[in-house]
Every structure is written in C-alpha cells, then in structure tokens.
Amino acid sequence: MTNNQYAESARVRAGRVRAGASNAQVIAAILCWLTVTLEGFDLVTLGAVIPSLLQTRHIGFDAGAATLVATLSLVGVGIGASAIGPLSDRFGRRHRSRCAWSAAARG
Fold this sequence. Notes:
82% of the residues lie in helices and 0% in strands. The protein has 107 residues and is mainly α. The chain has one domain. The protein starts with a helix and ends with a helix. The mean pLDDT is 78.
C-alpha cells in the first residue's frame, strides 16, 4: 500500500468521507427528509384528534363530518401530488419548491 492509500483508508475509517456528496447535496437531502416528515403530520394529527372530537361533539363534529374532513384531506393530498409534478416540469423545480414552502409558511 502506498501512503495515499493509507491516508484514504484512515479517512474512511474516521468517517470523514461522505461518498462524494457536496454540502449543497447534504442540505438538499436534509430538506427533503424534513418535508416528507412534516407532510404527513397533518394526517397523523387529524387521526389522533377525530376520536376526541366525536366524543365531545366539539365544533359540531359527528361521524359524517369526520368522514368528510378525512376524505377531503386525502383528496387534497392526491390532487396536490398529481398537480405539482407537471407544474415542476413546466416551470422548474426550484420555483415550485419556493412557492410550496412560502404557501406552507403562510398557513
């Protein structure tokens, strides 16, 4: 083994090699992971809250209203997922991502 190979082997063992990923790629991967994590949060929250809303009848919730809200939220996710792909292809992914993040930030 040459000195270069020893140095490379030491860096790999030390965990300092990130498979050639740049800082921008690492940031993009973290943002994608965060988006996927937060995307399902509303559905999980809705699933956790519906039983107590049905039990207390708070804001007039009954079984029919709960079904409607759950159905419409899933339909909204499906429409959004189906629409964003062609829009991203036409106008660019960076612009669509910025629009989506700003819309989510405004609530």
